[in-house]
Structure formats: structure tokens, C-alpha cells
Amino acid sequence: MRIRWDGGRVWDSGLGDFMEASVAFDTETGEIVAVGHPSAIRAEEVRSIRGLCVLPSFVDVHVHLRDPGLTHKETLASGLQAAAAGGFTQVACMPNTKPPIARVEIVEDIIRRGEAIGKAEVHPIACLTVDQEGEALANYEALAKAGALGFSDDGRGVQDGGLMREALTKLAALGKPAMIHAEDESISRGGALHEQAAARLGTTAQPGSAEAAMIARDILLAEETGAHLHVCHVSREASAALVRFGKRRGIRVTAEVTPHHLLLSERDIQRADANWKVNPPLASEEDRRACLAAFADGTLDVIATDHAPHHPDEKAKGMHEAPFGMVGLETAFALLYTGLVREGLVPMRRLVEAMSERPCRLFGLEGGQIRPGARADLVLVDLGRRWTIDPGAFYTKGRNTPFAGQSVVGKVIETIRAGRAIFREGEERLS
């Protein structure tokens, strides 16, 4: 069946802006049929979306869905519904599950169950090293054939430089990205917070050089091997500068930045609340501004939420003992639209590019554009709707966010994946 949305504003990637137009998509083929004047578009069902905007749906290449084995934090169903509620039709899940995503049958099981759930599409990221132990390389060929989008030991960096060089050599031949958690543990030593915040709150510090040192090493290794190196959650000025250096040298390096590292700094942490504890830690205001500048100019390619749900009892253990991470799938767009676009710091076209177009292009995924023949991955948003972030209303099982109670603008009304609605505002939680 063909459905046509009339009366709204539709994103035009060529213009880098909205245009007054109708958009029609086919629920059977899953494709966009036409974009233009409604009189020229035949459809069986017509719906007015006056006052709303249509964007290409969002893609997140870095989330933690905790399934298998850690389902007290999140299940595949709750995580993929949360993604759909945030406007995401595709997410890549990191391998630090229990057991880790290091075997073909786990990759296949996640994909199979994800399809059965019918919400956002899930792309497993498999382990760089066997069970993330940093001692031997995983079977990249078999895992890629099973459906792994990329490879990472996220949560840990690969500490052995020689082993990392071997990994990049193999991944270059395979054409798959290495997605690095950049942390030299001989420098970080398990530190919980940025140096200034740690001193203020009486806990352990993680020097910023722990991140930058590993990025520098791996960029040089990527240059030698020709591999695609993707740097996860960049947080420091030196790290952004290194990514810029790599790009200027023609090295195949891409990078992501999280909403929290663009919007928050260590000085926002006023009390010992572990909902503020993330890895890498919230950095200085100077680092935040440098990351924002690097995001605005495209050095930091994409937005990734690093959605990391935890049980409340785990976050209640305090700054030193609590696990790292905060949730972000359901708040990312509104926070960035409110804090960056409405404030005039980043144009809307850069936000759409970073959340939709570029992740698809860099990782070889469908979607990312609204044009005839493209996959109908769309998100309907109300850019005038003000709402308050309430963790109790989340679809994710996680409640760990420092943004609770914050007023934001920009509400996801409906999410369409391959022509079919996977979320509508107000829908019930999956069991």
C-alpha cells in the first residue's frame, strides 16, 4: 500500500534544508515512491502532517543493548524499542555482553531476534580480540559472514600494539572497520573522572592522555595497514586534533562524538552522582568546545549515543565503584537540536548529516536520504514541541541520565523503517 504524507516540511539533502512537499512510500516494497507536489503522487492512504517535519531516520553506530547475559540492564526488545522511540531505525550494538559477541551463533541470534522484534534494525559489532581479552584475534572472516558490521573491544582498548597492527592488517583485507575504545590503561589506571572533577569530588582521575595516546598509535597503524579506523566517543581536544591530522594525511580514519561530550563538561558535575560517570569521562570546558568545533567542521563525522543502560542498584554504588555509562537513544535528537541547532552553534544540515546520512555512507548501510527509490526510513518530528526529559517514561530499562528534568524542544512523533511504522508516540512498552 502507498501512503502519502501531506502538508509538512520534508528534508532535502541537496538543499540542506526543509522544503514544502509531500512524501509517499510503499509499505510492501519499503521504498520512497515520490517527493513533491501531492497532486502528482497517487496513494491509497493520505495523511496530513501539517506542522510537522520529515527527516531521514537516525542511525547510531554505537549502542550497548546488554543482550545476551545482562538483561537486568536492557533487553534486545527494550533497547530496540527505545531506539525507535528516539527516531533511530538502525543501531550497531557493542560486544561487551555476557558472553561477548565473539562467536558466529551469537551474531546470528542477535540479528534473528532483532528481526522478530520488528523495531530498529540491529547490526552486531563483534569482538576485536577473543572475548575482549586482548590476547588473540577473533575470527573476523566468519563473524563478518554471519553479519558483523565491524569489530571492537569497546569498554577496553587493545593494549598490545603489535596485536592491534595485526588486527588492522586483517580487517583492511576484509574491508571492515576497527572501532576503537581509545584508552591506554597504563595511563588511565581505572580513573573515574576528569582530573579537576576527581579532585573536587574526591575520587580517582583519568588523564586525557590515556585517550589521545591510543588514538595516535592506532592512526599510525591505520596508515601502515590501510585499514578503516573508527574512533569511538572522542572527548578531548588533543584527540580531535589527532583525528584531523589523520584525515589531512589521507588516512582512512573516521570518528564519532556523543551528545554528552558536546553538551556537558566536568564542571557540570556538582555532586557525586554516578549518572554523570561515563568513559571517557566528561572533560574540560575547553575540550568540550574543541570537540564541538571538530564536530561542526566534520572532523568528528557522526553522532553516536554510546547508549549504556545500567540497573539503578549498580549506579547507586558511587562514583568510584559504579559502572561507566548513561542512556541516550531517546534523548539524543532533542538534546542536540535544543542545545546546538536552536542556539545557532551547528546548522540543522550538519546534525542531519551526522545522525543520518554520514553513518550510512561510512558503514555501507541503506537509508540516510529522502529521495525516490531510497529505503523508506523516515522520522516524523515536531520541531516546536517542548517536553521535559523524564526517565520514568523511557522505553529503555535504563534510567541513568544526568539530563533528567531538562526541558528540550523537538519530539519524535513516528518512526518508519522500510515503509512500516516501528514507533508511534504514546505506544505501550514491549513486554
UniProtKB/TrEMBL annotation:
Keyword Transferase part of the UniProt annotation: no
Gene (name only): pyrC
Record-annotated active site: D306
Annotated function: Catalyzes the reversible cyclization of carbamoyl aspartate to dihydroorotate.
Binding residues annotated for Zn(2+) 2, in chain numbering: D154, H181, H233
Source species, domain of life: Bacteria
Keywords: Hydrolase, Metal-binding, Pyrimidine biosynthesis, Zinc
Residues that bind substrate: H64, L65, R66, N96, N279, H310, F324, G325
Record-annotated Dihydroorotase catalytic domain positions: 53-236
Pathway membership: Pyrimidine metabolism; UMP biosynthesis via de novo pathway; (S)-dihydroorotate from bicarbonate: step 3/3
PROSITE patterns tied to this protein: DIHYDROOROTASE_1, DIHYDROOROTASE_2
Family per record: Belongs to the metallo-dependent hydrolases superfamily. DHOase family. Class I DHOase subfamily.
Name of the molecule in the record: Dihydroorotase
HAMAP family: PyrC_classI_B
Cofactor: Zn(2+)
Pfam families: DHOase
Residue positions binding Zn(2+) 1: H62, H64, D154, D306
The record's free-text note on cofactor binding: Binds 2 Zn(2+) ions per subunit.
PANTHER family with a match to the protein in the record: ALLANTOINASE
The protein's enzyme class: hydrolase
Catalytic reactions of this protein: (S)-dihydroorotate + H2O = N-carbamoyl-L-aspartate + H(+)
Metal-binding in keyword set: yes
EC number: 3.5.2.3
